[in-house]
Write a structure and sequence with these properties.
Guanylate Kinase phosphate binding domain; 179 residues; globular; 22% strand; Rossmann fold; 2 domains; 4-stranded mixed β-sheet
C-alpha cells in the first residue's frame, strides 16, 4: 500500500512520519532528495542533500516518482524500492501528491494540519523560519488545504502528537483491512 502524509509547512508531518515508522514494523519511509541547505539542528538523515546539477541529472534519468521546484530549490521522491512486504510512506507536499495522482498510482492520502494558523506560525518560528517565510507558508497552506480536499485526503489535526499518530495508525490499519 502507498501512503502519502502531506500538509503545509510547520504542521508536524515529518515528526508524525518518523513516529509512524517507529511504531509499524512493516512501514517503509521513502527518503526525499532536496537541493535546499540543511536547517540548523536538522538530522543528516532527513533528506538526501544534493546539488542542483545532481538533482537535474536525476530528473533526466527518471529517478523520481515526483519532484517539484519550490522557492529555487528542488524536492523529489525517488521511485520507492521497499523491502518485500512493506507498505510505503511518502512524506510529501500536496503538489507532490498531485504528481503521484498524475502517474496513475492509487494511494491513501492523509493531510496533516495544525489546529490553527497561529499554531502553524509558532511551529515555523520554532524551526527558525523568517517572518516573511512564515507569511508565505501560511498563504501557501490555504491553497494546499483546498487542493488536498480535491484529492480526497483524510484530514488529521495535529493538536497532540500521540493522538494524531494514533488516528493515522487507525486509518492505515482500516485501509489495509479493506484492500
Amino acid at each position: 500500500m502507498l501512503i502519502v502524509v502531506s500538509g503545509p509547512g510547520g504542521v508536524g508531518k515529518g515528526t508524525i512520519a518518523e513516529v509512524l515508522v517507529e511504531k509499524h514494523a512493516n512501514l517503509w519511509l521513502s527518503k526525499s532528495w532536496t537541493t535546499r541547505p540543511r536547517r540548523e539542528g536538522e538530522e543528516e538523515e532527513s533528506y538526501v542533500f544534493v546539488t542542483h546539477e545532481e538533482f537535474k541529472k536525476a530528473i533526466d534519468e527518471d529517478v523520481f516518482l515526483e519532484w517539484a521546484e519550490f522557492h529555487n530549490n528542488f524536492y523529489g521522491t525517488p521511485w520507492p524500492n521497499p523491502p518485500e512486504g512493506f507498505d510505503v510512506l511518502l512524506e510529501i507536499d500536496v503538489q507532490g501528491a498531485k504528481s503521484v495522482t498524475e502517474r496513475g498510482l492509487d494511494f491513501l492520502m492523509i493531510f496533516v494540519d495544525a489546529p490553527t494558523l497561529q499554531d502553524q506560525a509558532e511551529r515555523l518560528r520554532g524551526r527558525g523560519d523568517s517572518e516573511k517565510e512564515i507569511e508565505r507558508r501560511i498563504r501557501e497552506g490555504e491553497r494546499e488545504r483546498n487542493d488536498a480536499k480535491n484529492l480526497g485526503a483524510i484530514v488529521v489535526v495535529n493538536d497532540d502528537l500521540d493522538r494524531a499518530v494514533s488516528e493515522i495508525s487507525s486509518i492505515i490499519m482500516s485501509n489495509r483491512s479493506g484492500e
